[in-house]
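ok so for the tutorial part 2 we go from a plain amino acid sequence to predicted structure tokens. step 1 is just haveing the sequence, like this:
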Amino acid sequence: MKFILHITAVVTLVLGGSVLPSHAAAPDAEESEFRTKAKSVFTALTREFQNFKADTPLSPDQKTQIHTVLKTHRSEIRALMVEFRAARRAMADAARTDPGSSDSLAAADKIGELARTRALLVAKIGAEVRPLLTPEQIKNLDLARGKVESAVDEAL
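step 2 — the prediction. this is what the tokens look like for a chain of 156 residues:
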């Protein structure tokens, strides 16, 4: 579960960084508001991740069992990360040339397909990890997820 939350934080950081212009001379009010909201979502995600780690320690046995689950999916996770990297690069290259081109559309479709695959893999791993947690840990996990979702809702 720690791995899933960590990956979520990293993905949020990467996506947030890729959609926010880093060299803008003077952001307009709308962009400034978007940046502020994106930062608040990332801050909430990071805070909840840290709180979850502190408030929901895993026993040594749980750590071992979760590590085993993640180890069984390591090749799937790695392959998905490699495919995502290639798809993001293809999208960036195609969009630089012509955002409406068939190459851009194909790259966007590939990213969508990979996002679906990622969501299903996360669900599968979660279904294997959740039974390893205590009711209190599950409650803390659900609470943390709710807080992050609330931060996203407020940003929208």
